[in-house]
Amino acid sequence: MKWEPTRKERTGMKLQEEAFWTQVNALKERLYRIACGYLNSQSAAIDAVDDAVYRAWQAKAKLRQPEYFDTWITRILLNVCAKEKRRQKREKVVGELPETAQQEFDSLPLKEAVARLPQELQEVIILRYFADLTLVQTARQLSIPQGTAATRQRKALQLLKLDLEE
Amino acid sequence: MNRMEEYSKLRRSLKEVPPQLEFVRTRVEARSKKKKYFSWVWKGPVLTAVALIMVFTVLTNTSVVFARAVSEIPILRELALFVAFDPSLKAAVENKYVQPVGLTQQSGGITVEIPYVIADQQRLSVYYRVTGGENWMYEPEPNPLRDEKGQELTSMTSSKTIYPDEVKGLQELRFDLAECTLPQKVRVQFSLLASEREQLAGEAPLRVPQDGVVESEGRGEQPAQVAYGEFDFLIQIDSQLTLPTKVIPLQREFTVQGQAVNLNQLEIYPTQAKLLLEIPQSNTALVKKLRVWLEDEAGNRWNGKTNGISGRGDNNGNVGEVWIESAYFTWANQLTLHIDAAGILKKQEEMVTVDLNKGTASPLPEHIKLERIARQGGRATLYFSIQRETEDHSTQQFDMIYYDSSGREYSMGSQGTSVLDEQDDQLHFTVECPEDGIIQLRRIDSSFTLLEQPVKIPIDFP
Question: What ipTM does the predicted assembly reach?
């Protein structure tokens, strides 16, 4: 027998949908800044945000702890951005630089230098200084110990020659 | 600039949020709706392809790599490659605007399979494959499109010869409707004449500079026919897949070389866009064409059609519709309609008088020359060379309807074009020879004149 939602269920579903969009609207600028940091292109960042929100929309029923909505959707966005970066790498020669390439980092514009950080360092920098997350929030987002997040942040700031408060 | 200054500048730039971010919800909801339509269709007739369809649905969740995802699915990869050079159809396939059909017929030793169609309210593109003998080539002869009851639908048909090395791939029959919309069931009828010759007659012209008239035994050696098949497909058009047209009223007027042009409205279909015009009869010259394109905020362009049919004329010799590549699937919220040039033809230069006995034609513009006339009994084939003005210039210079001295109408049926050399194209067609040997051709094209003030109209894209 085909399931048809009752009127009460349809109202409930509608409220959940509106709650989803309320949360997305509150987060989308931050999601955009994160995507910009990864993809270095406005149009690619918009595409990535669209894609992440679409995936989240499709999978919203699976989110068991709604209080972690922002961490969850940010994780989806990070995966979308990582996938796009891998695709870009297959098409272009330019890729990540190793931590030992200080001279190369020094010669690049800041935006380019961030884009060429090793992935684990880049993630921390983007979440901390593009999305304005605290160190605690960043560690939780990346599912790493706070100390590890602090170490990666220090290394990245050193490579970028940025003197920013921790 | 030191690193901290760069950092401050970067932070400031990130605060400038692009307007497209405002409409994330709109785009995501639209994408969700398209996914539902596609899923509904695939549950229907093509049951044997269910596994591939499910893979396709998962892959379509990744918009950034969609084109690559399509290329990984055998079913649509072939179609994506076939339409790669048509921006409108390419966008349609990338947005899954394709209807599976899965029909097969055999006739006269030839098998035709129709795997897909792409349809909107004004156009039907039928994609088919042909199987027959080895090294055969095929000449399709499509009949006018008809509805379920056999009523003819006013339409223009496009098809092309299928050469032996093209036989294994997809072919296309295209039907462009006029003054009607595509019904839910259409009858697509066509014949296929198969031959084994490498060249059809009439494709290797000679330059004859003296009198230009050549008496010939025939049109050249006729191809050896090896098979003939007639096909009649009744195709159900899925109404869920014929997305609604976007109609944008314009009501703007401009003038070029003193001639008025009224822009009525822009209609955007999934596979094409049409700019509808009205040219006053009070103009002293004819407006034959416009150079038009659409552009979005990011600088993406949708140009006027350069391959195939580029528009329609009105009943007074002016352009009535200009056809443009479709921006239907763009995410842009605003488009700009640009017009920067027009083709103006003086009314007294519209009709060209051809003397089939003397081999002359006038008045002709500088870039068109009558090269030769091949007579065969009561018919004559005319060969014109046309100097290429631009990469996208039109080789169709004359209307299909022509007249004798008394004003009686005749129809050519078809015109053939080919590349002559680096500078010129060739146009040829066959006419009936009236008793006095005089016919009149109507010119339908002219060179572009730049507008002194190009037109730019911003459009809020629905």
Answer: 0.82
